[in-house]
């Protein structure tokens, strides 16, 4: 298998824009086009036409396409998936509706829970039982499954999810059920022991339901994309970035589309981690704000924080437990409905609110002149002078200040008796404060102080808000990399071929069975490396993680362990590693209780070149700015005459004194009055607080 990927293309479908980044032997070409909801692949093709023309190549010259998308996420949130049947163990039909019975809002008498993806009438129990040790207690009722296959065919289901109790310990019943059903059904069948082989029935059942629910739609989309790419001359392979930050084949993505749920944001975290490594920054917070959402991720030692579960479609903002849990490896971040297209409104108490509803690309904010009439954050940024109405998205979209002003005045200003500019400032200030609060919460949940980090901002809207966010968080430095407007798509180009395989196996440390653990890990290694080998024949590295806890605790912590065969003598080493990690999380270890393993993970990925290391330059020579315009400065609360500087005119070592706006094709960087901007050797903008 060839390793030559000299010309790589990344494509990120977002809620508002589709970003394209083309790397031609180290030279980057990029563009943003509005997302096409009726035919999402069309936006990718349109973007490819633009970048290959700019690069002077043909589509046939592209060696690899790497794609991430929010389509699976949107299908779950908007409930636009296939009609799905859930087959489960008798007595457990209502697990996905009963959830964990946790009251995430203790005193809310009108608690609103997300509706299960699959209604009760489409959930079918069958007899058969595996116990917690993986032993068969009751044989599977195969005759009932034969009858059930006929029922599913008659009712016109589009997909089937199978989730049996304790199948993570023994998948035999799930595998046999799929075999029986597939004889009569020509629809995709997902089993939980393959999609999410982890303990905790609610999360596992919900994950396999989500996978089955979006599988027909995603398989159809990915098939169309491949066909249309070939029709335009791009004969190269297509790989998908998954939620854990690695690359997988289209075939794997079609079978396990739930792994794509956070694929776009994962690319952004990889992009930020690459910048952190380049400048040797070991504590970084990434800030990714696009057209629909904003994402914040902590990155330590050049690695984004990761988790085994996350939630989509929360009914209560910021409220853990109010969403739909997905139990797969994922880059951990906090995401809020605050993007450039987020709608601003006034609630019953007279407070300005923004999001989570978004104008998206259709009809878009009022200023887009595409039929949108409600004010969005982009409208407020335009009224405040942050955006050039004649040079938005490289001039492809002309913005209307009149439409934006009218929408803000009607829906916000008039209701609160505020001038239009004051209402616009209120909108962006609420958005910035919401993001600052989210960042603080995310840092505290991870035992960190947010102000100890350097920010890396990217996405079409983040550079417009990053300086103000730094003011609120007490962050003194912020990096705006080259290509920040299409950061996630660039991150795709830097992602490794990688996969993480997991399996639950509860075992006390005092009963550690090295042979059984080694056998299980060998299977996980073969699984993970099998997915990686679908894309590369290069060197592979592995990470072994045991998720452990004290017996009786409700959750586990990750403990990194050596990649080798274990022996019975390793119990002391494992105990020491667990206690050290526990102390990092909670201050000190606990003496006395039994330590136990819950889940094991093997992460395999190919070795990627690190690239050149650079040093941050904190000062430089001030450059004059011949052009200026009036821009509202939030730090002073006034409209100030502000320097307008094209990014391409700035050389390394140049210093731009705030307030200023540094403009480029995909975004603009606002340098507020407390900050200056210093251009780094690679063209990255460093926002640095004056006097620091």
From TrEMBL:
Residues 517-678 form the Acetophenone carboxylase-like C-terminal domain. Residues 8-183 form the Hydantoinase/oxoprolinase N-terminal domain. Residues 204-496 form the Hydantoinase A/oxoprolinase domain. InterPro entries: ACX-like_C (IPR049517), Hydant_A_N (IPR008040), Hydantoinase_A (IPR002821), Oxoprolinase-like (IPR045079). It comes from the Bacteria. Pfam families: Hydant_A_C, Hydant_A_N, Hydantoinase_A. This is Hydantoinase/oxoprolinase family protein. It comes from Shinella curvata.
């Amino acid at each position: 298998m060839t390793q030559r990927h000299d010309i790589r293309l990344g494509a990120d479908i977002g809620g508002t824009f589709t970003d394209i980044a083309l790397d031609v032997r180290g030279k980057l070409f990029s563009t943003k086009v509005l997302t096409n909801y009726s035919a999402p692949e069309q936006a990718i093709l349109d973007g490819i036409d633009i970048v290959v023309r700019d690069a002077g190549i043909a589509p046939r010259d592209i060696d690899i396409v790497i794609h991430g998308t929010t389509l699976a996420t949107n299908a779950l949130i908007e409930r636009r998936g296939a009609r799905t049947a859930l087959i489960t163990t008798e007595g457990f039909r209502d697990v996905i509706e009963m959830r964990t019975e946790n009251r995430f809002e203790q005193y809310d008498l009108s608690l609103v829970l997300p509706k299960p993806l699959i209604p009760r009438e489409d959930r079918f129990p069958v007899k058969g039982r595996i116990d917690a040790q993986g032993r068969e207690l009751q044989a599977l009722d195969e005759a009932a499954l034969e009858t059930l296959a006929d029922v599913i065919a008659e009712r016109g289901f589009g997909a089937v999810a199978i989730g049996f109790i304790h199948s993570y310990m023994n998948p035999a019943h799930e595998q046999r059920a799929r075999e029986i059903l597939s004889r009569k059904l020509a629809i995709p069948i997902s089993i939980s022991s393959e999609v999410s082989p982890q303990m905790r029935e609610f999360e596992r059942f919900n994950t396999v339901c989500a996978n089955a629910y979006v599988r027909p739609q995603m398989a159809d989309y990915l098939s169309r994309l491949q066909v249309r790419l070939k029709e335009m001359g791009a004969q190269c392979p297509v790989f998908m970035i998954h939620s854990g930050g690695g690359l997988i084949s289209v075939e794997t993505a079609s079978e396990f589309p739930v792994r794509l749920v956070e694929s776009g944001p994962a690319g952004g975290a990889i992009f930020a981690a690459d910048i952190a490594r380049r400048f040797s920054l070991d504590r970084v917070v990434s800030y990714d704000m696009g057209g629909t959402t904003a994402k914040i991720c902590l990155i330590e030692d050049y690695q984004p924080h990761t988790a085994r579960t996350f939630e989509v479609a929360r009914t209560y903002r910021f409220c853990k437990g109010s969403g739909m849990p997905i139990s797969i490896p994922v880059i951990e971040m906090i995401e809020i409905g605050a993007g450039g297209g987020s709608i601003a409104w006034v609630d019953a108490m007279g407070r300005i609110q923004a999001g989570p509803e978004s104008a998206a690309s259709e009809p878009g904010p009022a200023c887009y002149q595409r039929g949108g009439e409600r004010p969005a954050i982009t409208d407020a940024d335009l009224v405040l002078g942050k955006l050039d109405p004649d040079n938005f998205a490289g001039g492809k979209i002309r913005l209307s200040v009149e439409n934006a002003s009218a929408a803000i005045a009607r829906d916000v200003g008039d209701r609160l008796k505020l001038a239009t500019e004051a209402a616009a400032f209120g909108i962006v200030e609420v958005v910035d404060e919401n993001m600052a609060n989210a960042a603080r919460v995310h840092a505290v949940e991870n035992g960190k102080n947010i102000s100890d980090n350097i920010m890396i901002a990217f996405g079409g809207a983040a550079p417009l808000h990053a300086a103000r966010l730094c003011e609120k968080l007490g962050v003194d430095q912020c990096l705006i990399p080259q290509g920040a407007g299409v950061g996630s798509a660039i991150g795709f180009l830097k992602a490794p071929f990688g996969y993480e395989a997991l399996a639950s196996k509860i075992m006390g440390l005092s009963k550690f069975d090295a042979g059984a653990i080694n056998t299980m890990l060998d299977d996980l290694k073969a699984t993970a490396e099998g997915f990686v080998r679908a894309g590369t024949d290069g060197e592979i590295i592995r990470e072994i993680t045991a998720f452990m806890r004290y017996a009786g605790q409700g959750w586990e912590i990750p403990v990194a362990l050596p990649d080798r065969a274990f022996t019975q003598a390793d119990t002391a080493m494992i105990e020491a590693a667990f206690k050290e990690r526990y102390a990092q999380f909670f201050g000190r270890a606990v003496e006395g209780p039994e330590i136990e393993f819950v889940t094991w993970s093997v992460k395999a990925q190919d070795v990627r070149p690190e690239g050149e290391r650079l040093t941050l330059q904190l000062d430089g020579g001030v450059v004059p700015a011949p052009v200026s315009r009036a821009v509202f400065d939030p730090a002073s609360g006034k409209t100030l005459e502000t320097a307008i500087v094209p990014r391409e005119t700035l050389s390394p070592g140049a210093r731009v004194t705030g307030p200023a706006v540094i403009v480029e094709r995909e975004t603009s960087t606002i340098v507020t009055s407390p900050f200056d901007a210093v251009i780094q050797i690679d063209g990255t903008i460093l926002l640095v607080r004056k006097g620091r």
